[in-house]
Design a protein that fits this description.
With 100 residues, the protein is an all-alpha fold. It is built from four helices and no strands. The relative contact order is 0.08.
């Protein structure tokens, strides 16, 4: 009887550890990220692939490594507008240099 109680107590004390929780976004898809960042827009794999390529092409060849679009249309728009402003500034500087 005593041995039985000891064994039962041991078995009752054995527990499987709780499973570690997965990070919330560990298995999130590009579609979910895109739709979260761009409310009201529909995800299209073909279009997003083209936009990714377009995003990378805005950089010089040497700068392209490690550059990746974050799937936000607004962020891409701001970067393109900044690029356009930079180009206009550079054209303005070159124009001023030619006059001097």
């Amino acid at each position: 009887m005593t041995i039985r109680r000891i064994v039962d107590d041991l078995v009752d004390g054995i527990r499987t550890p709780d499973r570690a929780r997965s990070p919330v976004d560990a298995y999130i898809t590009d579609e979910e990220i895109f739709e979260r960042l761009n409310p009201g827009m529909h995800y299209s794999n073909e279009v997003v692939s083209e936009l990714r390529q377009l995003y990378v092409e805005q950089f010089d060849e040497e700068e392209r490594d490690g550059k990746e679009w974050d799937l936000s249309i607004e962020n891409m728009k701001q970067e393109f507008l900044q690029l356009e402003d930079d180009e206009k500034r550079e054209i303005g500087r070159a124009s001023c240099r030619e006059r001097v």
